[in-house]
Design brief:
Blueprint (H helix, E strand, L loop, with lengths): L1 E4 L5 H15 L4 E3 L2 H9 L5 E5 L6 H9 L3 E6 L4 H6 L3 E3 L3 H6 L11 E2 L2 E5 L12 E3 L2 E2 L25 E3 L5 E7 L2 E11 L3 E6 L11 H9 L11 E2 L8 E9 L7 H10 L4 E4 L11 H8 L3 E4 L12 H19 L5 E3 L7 H9 L4 E4 L24 E4 L17 H13 L2 E6 L13 H16 L4 E3 L2 H11 L3 E5 L2 E5 L11 E4 L2 E4 L5 E2 L1
Parallel strand pairs: 1-2, 1-3, 3-4, 4-13, 15-16, 15-21, 15-22, 16-17, 18-19, 19-20
Antiparallel strand pairs: 5-10, 6-9, 7-8, 7-11, 11-12, 12-13, 14-25, 23-24, 24-27, 25-26
Helix pairs in contact: 7-12, 9-10
Length: 526
C-alpha cells in the first residue's frame, strides 16, 4: 500500500501525485491520508510506502519515525522545511531571482531548438536504476514556445507545484541529481538517504517528476529498491510484456485528409500501422471520405480531432461535450467508423474537456504539451487528475514536422532521442505529423522529402530489438485495459487481477522486487 500525505495548502499537488501513483501502481494501491492516520500507521508498525508532499516542520517527528520504521520507504516531494532539512544534513534557502531568470528560454527558431540555462544533471542512480536522461534543461522548445519533442514538462521557478521548491545543498553522498547552470552545480534536485531499516527519496518539486520519464526512478524505488530488505510495491508497466519499446503514430488532419495518401502508402509499404485523427468539418467534402475508409479497412485507426478545431475544446464543458459528440457523429456518417478516442486541438486538454469527452462516450484522449495543461502532460498513460471516471489520457508530445528537423547534423537527432528516452523510461511512445493543405506544409519542402524522413525514422526505430508498432486504437485500447488492472495487498504479498472482458492482443507486464511478470487472465500472486 502507498499512503500519501500533503498539507491542505497543497491539495492540487496531492491530486496530481496521487493520480500519477495510481497510473503506475493501480487505483487500489494508493490512499490519501491525514497526518493523524500517518501517525497511527507508524504506531501499528505498518510496513508501507509513504509519499509526503511539502511536509510541514511540525511533521518532522513523523518523518524521523518513518525513517526508523523497519522496511519502510518514504518519497518526499517539494520543500524541506528547516527541521526536516537539518535531519537530512541539508542546507536550504529560497529560489533566487537569478535562478528564476535562468529557468526561462526564448521560443525555438525553425529547424532549431532553445533551452533554459538552468538544468538538471543526474550524478548517481537510485539503487540500480539510472535516469532515462543523464541531463535535461528545465525548459526547452522545438517549435516556437509550444512543443518539446523530447516529451517532458517544464520545471518552473514560479512557486507553483511545477516549480523548483527551493535551493538545497545536500551532503555529496546523498545527491542523486543537481541543479546546474553552465555546467556548474547550484544545489540539488533529487537526493537519496538509505538507512539501515528504511530509505528516503526526495525530489525538489511538489509535483515530483510526474511529467517526465524521470518518473521511472519513482517506479523503481517503489517496486524494487532494496528488495528483500524494504517493502516493495508492484508497478504495472506501460510497455506490453515481451517488448522493449512500443510505438504508435498518427496524422492530425486539420485541413486536408486526402493529401495524406502518399504517406499512408509509404507506411503500408513499411508494414507499420497508420492512424488518422479527423477534423470533422473537413468531412463536409466527400473527397475526404475515401482515405479514412481505406485506413480503417487496412488495419489503421480513426480518431476524432474535434468538430471545429476550437481552442480549448470550445472553452467550456458544454462546448467540449458538443464538439466531441458532433465530431463522432460526423465521422461515423462519413466513414462508418465509431470513434472511441480523441486527439486534442492544439494539444489543449483542460479538465472540463476531459469530463465533456467522457460524457460524450469517449474512453480517452491524446494530448500533452509543455505549453499548457501541465497536469495532462503525464509520464504514464491512465486516468489524469480531474478526468472522468475511467477516462484515460496519453501524452504524445513528439511532432515530426519539417519545422522541427534540425538544420545541421542529423536532421532526425531530436526524434531519435525522443524514442530512446521513451524506451529507457518504459513509455508507450507516440509521434505525429499533419497532412499538407493548400495553406500550410508544416515546414516540409515537398511530399517526397517528408516521406523520406518518415521512412528513415521508421527504419531507424526498426533497428532496435523487440519493438511493437500499434495503431492508435490498439495502443489506447491496451492502455485503457492497463488502467483497469487491480493491485491489492494480500498478506505479506499482493494479488494482481486482470480486468474483466476481452483482453488486448498483448499481455500486461508487472514489475515487482526486481522481476518482470506476465499478467495472465487468472491474475498474479506476488
Amino acid at each position: 500500500m502507498i499512503y500519501l500525505i500533503c498539507p491542505g495548502s497543497r491539495n492540487e499537488a496531492g491530486e496530481v501525485v496521487a493520480a500519477a501513483l495510481r497510473r503506475s501502481c493501480g487505483a487500489q494501491a494508493v490512499q490519501q491520508v491525514t497526518a493523524a492516520r500517518w501517525d497511527a500507521l507508524l504506531a501499528q508498525s505498518a510496513r508501507a510506502n509513504f509519499v509526503v508532499i511539502d511536509p510541514l516542520d511540525a511533521w518532522a517527528p513523523l518523518v524521523a519515525r518513518t525513517r526508523q520504521q523497519a522496511g519502510a520507504k518514504l518519497l518526499v516531494l517539494g520543500v524541506l522545511h528547516p527541521d526536516i532539512a537539518a535531519s537530512l544534513g541539508a542546507v536550504v534557502g529560497p529560489v533566487t531571482d537569478a535562478m528564476r531568470e535562468a529557468a526561462q528560454c526564448l521560443p525555438a527558431p525553425s529547424r532549431g531548438q532553445t533551452q533554459s540555462a538552468l538544468g538538471i544533471r543526474y550524478v548517481r542512480p537510485v539503487g540500480q536504476t539510472e535516469s532515462p536522461m543523464a541531463q535535461r534543461p528545465f525548459l526547452r522548445y522545438d517549435f516556437t514556445d509550444e512543443w518539446n519533442n523530447l516529451g517532458w514538462g517544464a520545471v518552473r521557478a514560479d512557486a507553483s507545484i511545477w516549480a523548483l521548491a527551493q535551493h538545497a545543498v545536500l551532503q555529496p553522498d546523498n545527491v542523486v541529481a543537481e541543479v546546474t547552470q553552465g555546467g556548474v552545480a547550484h544545489g540539488a534536485y533529487a537526493g537519496l538517504w538509505d538507512g539501515a531499516s528504511s530509505s528516503l527519496l526526495w525530489f525538489n518539486r511538489a509535483a515530483g517528476p510526474v511529467d517526465s520519464q524521470e518518473w521511472l526512478l519513482v517506479e523503481r524505488f517503489l517496486s524494487s529498491h532494496r528488495n528483500g530488505q524494504l517493502v516493495c510495491q508492484p508497478v504495472i508497466r506501460e510497455i506490453p510484456h515481451g517488448y522493449d519499446a512500443a510505438v504508435t503514430m498518427r496524422l492530425d488532419c486539420d485541413e486536408d485528409v486526402e493529401s495524406a495518401r502518399s504517406l499512408y502508402e509509404a507506411y503500408q509499404a513499411m508494414g507499420v500501422p497508420f492512424s488518422l485523427a479527423l477534423h470533422a468539418t473537413v468531412l463536409a467534402d466527400a473527397a475526404h471520405h475515401s482515405l479514412p475508409r481505406e485506413v480503417a479497412s487496412g488495419g489503421g485507426a480513426i480518431l476524432s480531432h474535434t468538430a471545429t478545431h476550437a481552442p480549448d475544446w470550445g472553452g467550456s464543458y458544454e462546448a467540449a461535450l458538443i464538439e466531441g459528440a458532433s465530431s463522432a457523429a460526423s465521422i461515423l456518417a462519413a466513414t462508418g467508423e465509431t470513434v472511441r478516442y480523441a486527439v486534442s486541438p492544439f494539444h489543449q486538454t483542460p479538465s472540463y474537456a476531459r469530463d465533456g469527452l467522457a460524457d460524450a462516450g469517449y474512453a480517452g484522449c491524446i494530448g500533452g504539451i509543455i505549453r499548457n495543461d501541465p497536469d495532462f502532460l503525464i509520464a504514464r498513460a491512465g486516468v489524469p487528475p480531474g478526468g472522468g471516471v475511467g477516462f484515460i489520457g496519453h501524452s504524445q508530445q513528439c511532432m515530426l514536422h519539417g519545422d522541427c528537423m534540425l538544420a545541421s547534423g542529423d536532421p532526425l537527432a531530436i526524434f531519435k532521442q525522443a524514442f530512446t528516452m521513451a524506451m529507457r523510461g518504459g513509455a508507450f511512445f507516440g509521434y505525429l505529423d499533419h497532412p499538407f493543405s493548400p495553406r500550410y506544409q508544416y515546414g516540409w519542402d515537398n511530399e517526397p522529402q517528408r516521406v523520406a524522413a518518415h521512412r528513415d525514422y521508421v527504419a531507424w526505430i526498426k533497428g532496435h530489438e523487440k519493438v511493437l508498432f500499434a495503431n492508435e486504437n490498439e495502443a489506447m485500447d491496451f492502455l485503457y485495459w492497463r488502467a483497469r488492472v487491480e493491485v491489492m495487498a494480500a498478506g505479506t504479498g499482493y494479488t494482481v487481477a486482470a480486468p474483466a472482458g476481452s483482453a488486448p492482443p498483448w499481455a500486461v507486464a508487472v514489475e515487482y522486487a526486481g522481476a518482470i511478470h506476465r499478467l495472465e487472465a487468472q491474475g498474479l500472486a506476488l
